[in-house]
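Why run this: before we spend reagent on co-expression, it is cheaper to look at a predicted model of the complex and decide which construct boundaries make sense. The entries below are exactly what would go into the expression plan.
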Amino acid sequence: MEFRTTSRKDNHIVLSVKEDVSSRTSPWFEYLRFVHQSILETSLSDVDISASFLGHAVEAPIVISGMTGGTDLAKAINESLARLAQKFKIPIGVGSQRAALEDRSLARTFSVVRENAPDVPVIANIGQSQVAAGVSREEILYLVEMIQADAIAVHINPLQEVLQPEGEPDFRDFVRKLGEFVKESPVPVIIKQTGEGLSRESASKLRGIGIEGIDVGGAGGTSFAVIEGLRSRFYGRDLLEKVASTFADWGVPTAASILEVREIFPDKLLIATGGIRSGVDAAKALRLGADFAGIARPILKELYEGGLSRAEKYLEQVIKELRVTLFLTGSSNLNELRSAPIVI
Amino acid sequence: MEFRTTSRKDNHIVLSVKEDVSSRTSPWFEYLRFVHQSILETSLSDVDISASFLGHAVEAPIVISGMTGGTDLAKAINESLARLAQKFKIPIGVGSQRAALEDRSLARTFSVVRENAPDVPVIANIGQSQVAAGVSREEILYLVEMIQADAIAVHINPLQEVLQPEGEPDFRDFVRKLGEFVKESPVPVIIKQTGEGLSRESASKLRGIGIEGIDVGGAGGTSFAVIEGLRSRFYGRDLLEKVASTFADWGVPTAASILEVREIFPDKLLIATGGIRSGVDAAKALRLGADFAGIARPILKELYEGGLSRAEKYLEQVIKELRVTLFLTGSSNLNELRSAPIVI
Amino acid sequence: MEFRTTSRKDNHIVLSVKEDVSSRTSPWFEYLRFVHQSILETSLSDVDISASFLGHAVEAPIVISGMTGGTDLAKAINESLARLAQKFKIPIGVGSQRAALEDRSLARTFSVVRENAPDVPVIANIGQSQVAAGVSREEILYLVEMIQADAIAVHINPLQEVLQPEGEPDFRDFVRKLGEFVKESPVPVIIKQTGEGLSRESASKLRGIGIEGIDVGGAGGTSFAVIEGLRSRFYGRDLLEKVASTFADWGVPTAASILEVREIFPDKLLIATGGIRSGVDAAKALRLGADFAGIARPILKELYEGGLSRAEKYLEQVIKELRVTLFLTGSSNLNELRSAPIVI
Amino acid sequence: MEFRTTSRKDNHIVLSVKEDVSSRTSPWFEYLRFVHQSILETSLSDVDISASFLGHAVEAPIVISGMTGGTDLAKAINESLARLAQKFKIPIGVGSQRAALEDRSLARTFSVVRENAPDVPVIANIGQSQVAAGVSREEILYLVEMIQADAIAVHINPLQEVLQPEGEPDFRDFVRKLGEFVKESPVPVIIKQTGEGLSRESASKLRGIGIEGIDVGGAGGTSFAVIEGLRSRFYGRDLLEKVASTFADWGVPTAASILEVREIFPDKLLIATGGIRSGVDAAKALRLGADFAGIARPILKELYEGGLSRAEKYLEQVIKELRVTLFLTGSSNLNELRSAPIVI
Ligand SMILES: Cc1cc2nc3c(=O)[nH]c(=O)nc-3n(C[C@H](O)[C@H](O)[C@H](O)COP(=O)(O)O)c2cc1C
Ligand SMILES: Cc1cc2nc3c(=O)[nH]c(=O)nc-3n(C[C@H](O)[C@H](O)[C@H](O)COP(=O)(O)O)c2cc1C
Ligand SMILES: Cc1cc2nc3c(=O)[nH]c(=O)nc-3n(C[C@H](O)[C@H](O)[C@H](O)COP(=O)(O)O)c2cc1C
Ligand SMILES: Cc1cc2nc3c(=O)[nH]c(=O)nc-3n(C[C@H](O)[C@H](O)[C@H](O)COP(=O)(O)O)c2cc1C
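The model came back. C-alpha cells follow.
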C-alpha cells in the first residue's frame, strides 16, 4: 500500500512536468481586463504587496501550493520549494502527508520543508478520504508537528477518487467528520479542492463547522482528470482512460469559483489556486476576491527543468508582474487593487 | 424491391462505420455545463440510475437505438446489440422492419433481438411512409409479435425521403393514418424522428392521438442527409448529392428539441437520440427533460471495429460517466439530477 | 472608349470565373435557421413555388441576374443564360447596355437574350453614371426595344466608380435625373445596387419617384471592390489596388439590406441578389422579405467551366433545394414560407 | 548616458520596421461598421476633409506621429517625414527631444523637420519622466524653438518605464509638475500616451491644468511592451523579457480610449493614435470622437523599405480611403461624418 502511494506521487510529478496536464477548460481570467492608468502619481518602488496569512505577515500574496512528499524525488523538490518560500517570504504547502502516516520513516520527506523555510507559514496536507475514513487526534498532531505547520489543508477531489483505480469515492458522513477534524486540529484548517473548483452550493455546506480558509482549487490549471487519464493510458486501463478524457473539462473555472466562494465566506482566508500563470493572473484573482493566489505546476516545471535558479526567476517574474499590475492600475497596495477599475 | 431495401440497409451500416456521417451542426450540448460539487456526502456506489421504460424496470436510462435488420450482416449486428441490451438491462430497438413485411423470410434477422434480450424492453420499428401508405392491423401484429415488442416506433424522416432516389416524400393524411395505427397497435407507439429533431410545432400536431412516447432524434449526431449524400456520390446522382450537402446541417439540435418537445408533452416518455456520445451528454439530455438517452452509431462503430467486447466497454463507459455525473453533481438518482445546478 | 468598355466586360467575366471575387463579409444568412418540421401532411410534389414578376407569371422566385453583353464572349454567355431562363421559366437580366448605346452594332450581343427567352420577363440594364449624365427618351426606348424588355434596371455602384480608373464618381442631381428617367421609361424601373447593399437611408431617398422594384444587391456575394482590385493589380495601379483591398468588406450584407429596404418599401418588388448560393439561401432571402432571389456568379461559373448542362444542373439544384425548404418547413407555397418559424 | 539614449532610439526604429511589434490586443475598430449609402447626390471631388489643428488650417485630419530624433538615421527619417507632412499639408510630430537636451549638438536631427515642413503644425516632444524630474523654463523654450513648434507633446508610458532597464517608474508629483510645465510652455501642451491608451479615470486627473490636447495613444498598434521585450531578449534580460510578454496585450484599445477621453474633454483637441492602418480606420476614429488620427509605424516602415515615394503612396492611400469613406457614407465634410450611421 505505501509503495503504491509513493510511486503514484512520483508519477504525478513526472507527468505534470513532461505532459500537458492542464484542464481543457480555461480559468476564465481572460474575461477580465484591468483598465490601464496612464496618469500616475506614485513610484513603482512604493507599491506594497505585503499580506497577512492567517495572522502571519508575508511579503507577497502568493502561495506555493502543496504538491509532494513521500519519496526521495519529492524530498528534493520539497527542499527547493521551501528555499524559494523562505527567500520570497511567502507561504508554502506540502503534498498529502498520507504516506507518512502509513510509514513514519517518510516524515523526513516533508519535514525538510520546515527546515528550509523556518520563517514562513507552512501548510500541512491530508486527503478527504483520510478524513472521511477518520483520522485520530494523535495522527493530526503528528501531521502538524512533522512540519511545525501553521495550518492544515484537507484536499478534496471526488473526481480524482473516481478516476483512480485505487480511489475511494465514498464520502458518507464527510462533513460531520470534517467538523470533528477541525475540532481536533491544533492549527487552522483549510479546505482545498484541487482542480475542479468549489461552487456556491458546496461552499455553503462548509458553513458553521469552524474552517478558517478555503482554497478554491478551480478548473483551468492542472487537471487531475488529465493526469489520471495519462496514468490509466500507461497501465492499459481503457475504461478509466476514456472516462478521464470525458471529464477533462469538468469543474468550476477558478475565476467563477472565487466569486461563488467569496459570496458564502465574506471574511475567511480565500486562496485561489488553479491556472494562475502570471502576476496579472494573480492580480485578477485578488481583484475578484481572493486573499492569496496559489501556484503549483509552473514552479515544479521550472524547478525540474532548470533547477532552483530558474524556479526563483519564475517567482521573481510573477511577483514583479503583480507589482507592475498594481502600479499600472494606480493601486498602492492590495486593498486598493481590490477596487481597481476592470472591464468584463 | 426487397433487394433494394435490404442492400440499402447494408450501405447505411457500412457508411456509418467507415465515414464521418455526423451532422454539420452540433447537438448543442456544449452550451450546458454542470456545476461540480466538491463537498459530497454520498458514495459513488450509492448512486442509483435505474429507470422505468413504459412501466418496465431497467438498469440505466440508456436506449440502444434501432438501426438494422433485413440482411445477414444486420442479423449478426442485431444479435450482438441484443446481448449488450440484455447484459446492461437497457431497452433496445430494431431497425425498420419494412423488409420483413415485404419478405417474411427476413423476420429472423429481427427476432434474433428478442431471443438474445429476453428480459428488456424491445422496440419494433416501421417507417412513416409505410404508415402513410397504410399498414393493416394484421401487419402491425406481425411486426410486434416478430420480436415480442414492448413498444413500436414509427420513424419519420422527411428529409431522407427527399434525398433517396427511392424516397416517397408524400405524407398527405399522415396524422390521421398515424392515429389509426395507434388504435390498431397492441403496444404503445413511439414517434421517432431520425436526425433532424422535432420542433414545438411538429410535436403539437401529435397531441391527442394516443402516442405514448417521442424520440426527438435531434440534429447533431448521425445525419441521413450526409449518409444519403455519400450514397448519391457513389451512384453518381449529382443533383441529390449536392442537395444533400446543402441540407447537411438542417434540423433542430437535440438539446433544443428536448426542450421544445417536453413543453408540449410534459408527461410522455421522451427519448433523446442524436449525438449522445458520452455519459455526460446523456446526463445533459436528462437534465433538459429527457427520460432516456438513445445511442446508435457509436455502438455500431465499436461493434464493427472491435467486436462485442469493445462495444460492451463503450456502453460500460457511458454508464460509468453517467453515474459519475450524478455523483459529482450531488445527485443520488435521476430525479435529483433533473434539478442539479447548471450553467448555460 | 467603346473598346475600353467592352474589354472591361470580358475582364469581369474571366476574373469572376477564375478568381475568388467574393466579398470579405458574408451575406449574414448564417444567422438564420429554419425550424425543421417533422410532422408533415403534404407531398413534396404539391409544393408550389410559382411567383409573379411585375405581373408576369414565372415558375420560381429566382432571377438570373444581369451580367454581360457587348462582346462575342458575352453574346455566347447571354445566349446560354437565356436558354436557362426559358427552360426554368424565370426572369433574366442582361448586363449594362451602355456599350450598345455607344456602338449600336453591339445590340445583337444583348438581343440574343430575348430571342432565346421569348416567354419570360427580361430586364434591361443601364448604369447610374449614364442616368446621372442624362439618357434621352430615344435612348431609353432603344435599350428596351433591343431586348423587348419587361423592365429596366438602373445599376448603382458608387464604390466601383471610385475604384475604376475610368470611373465617374459624380452623382450630383442623380435622384432628380432618376425621376426623369422613370417618367420617360416605357417599362417599370428597378434600382439595383451591385454588391454593397441598400441601406434604410438610401432606400428612403428613392421614395416617391415612381420606381417599381429594388434589387438590394447586398454585400456577401460577388464584390466589385475585389474585382476592380484584381484589375488594378494586373495593370500595376498600386493605389487603387490597395484602396480596393481596404473596401473589400464594405457594404450592407444582403440579409440586413432586405430587412432595411422592405421596411421602406412594403409593397414594391424586392429582389435579393448578392451571395445567394443555394435554395436554402434563396428561401432565407424570401423569408426575410424578398420577392425574388437573384443569382449571378455561380451560374456564370458553372456555365464557363461545365457548359450549359452543368449550369442547368446547378439551377435545378437551387430550385429543388428551395422546394425542399418549403416542404420541410411545412409551407405549401411562398406565402406560407414567409411566416415559417425561424431561429435567429 | 547620451549614448544610451541615442542608440536606444535606433533600436526602436529598426525593431519597429523588422519585427511585428504590434500589441496583442486590437484597437477594436473591427466592432464598428459604417453603413454604405448607395443613393448619393454628391461628387467624390466635392468631399472636403480639411481640418483645423489648434487653429492652424491643414488639408487632412491625419497626423504623422512623432517617432524619432537624436541620431543620423533619425535625422534622415525626420527629413523625409517632414517632406511628407509638407506635401500633404498635415501636422507632424518629432520623437522625444530628450537627447538634444542632454547633448545640444543633436538639435539638428530635430530641426530638420521644421526646415522641411515650413507650412504645417510641428509638435515638439518630451517624456513624462523629464517632466516629473522637472524641466526648466529655459529648456522648454529650447525644445520649442529648436523646431519652431506649434505645440509640445508630453508623452507618457509608465509601462515602458517599467520594462526598460534604464526606466524610471517614479511619477510622484507628476500632475503638479505637468501643471507647471503647462504654465511655462509658450505653446499648447498635448498629453500623449504611447500605446496603452488613456482611461476615463486618468483623463479626469488632467482636468483643470490647462492642457490643450490629448493623444489617446491606445492599445492595438505599436506596443512598447513588445519592443522592449525584443530588446530585453536581445540583451539576455530574461526577467524583463517575460514581464514584457505578459503585458503585451495590456492597455485600453484605441476605439475605447477615444470614447472615454471625449467624455471627459468634450472640447479639447483629441488625437487618436495607435493601430490606425487605413483611411477607414481613421474615419472610424473620427466618427467615435477624435479630431485627428495619428499614424506612426506604417509610415516608418514604408519609408524604410521603399523610400520616400512609397511612404508618399501610403499616405496618399490613407487620405484617399478617408475621402472615399466620407463619400460612401454620404458625408460632405468631417462634421457630417461625425453623425454618419454606423453599426456596432
Ligand atoms: C504534481 C502535483 C501533485 C499535487 N499533489 C497535491 C497534493 O498532494 N495535495 C494537494 O492538496 N494538492 C496537490 N496538488 C494540487 C496543487 O496544489 C494545485 O491545487 C493544482 O496543481 C492547481 O494549481 P496549478 O494549476 O498552478 O498547478 C498537486 C499538483 C501537482 C501538479
Ligand atoms: C446505420 C444506421 C441505421 C439506422 N436505421 C434506422 C432505422 O431503420 N429506423 C430508425 O428508426 N432509426 C434508424 N437509425 C437512426 C438511429 O436510431 C438514431 O436515431 C440516429 O442514428 C441518431 O443517433 P446517433 O447520433 O447516436 O447515431 C439508424 C442509424 C444508423 C447509424
Ligand atoms: C461578371 C459579372 C458582371 C456583372 N455585370 C453587371 C452589370 O453589367 N450590370 C449589373 O446590374 N450587375 C452586374 N453584375 C452584378 C450581378 O448582377 C449581381 O448583382 C452580383 O454579381 C451579385 O450576385 P452574386 O453574388 O450571385 O454574383 C455582374 C456580375 C458579374 C459576376
Ligand atoms: C520607432 C518608434 C519610435 C517612437 N518614439 C516616440 C517618441 O519618442 N515619442 C512619442 O511620443 N511617441 C513615440 N512613438 C509612438 C508613436 O508616436 C505612436 O504613438 C505609436 O507608435 C502608435 O501608433 P502606430 O500604431 O501607428 O505606430 C514611437 C513609435 C515608433 C514606432
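The pocket of flavin mononucleotide (ligand 2) is lined by residues B 12-13, 16, 65-68, 95-96, 125, 153, 155, 192, 194-195, 217, 221-222, 273-276, 295-297, 300 (CB under 6 Å). The first strand of chain D starts at residue 33 and ends at 34. Bring this page to Monday's planning discussion.
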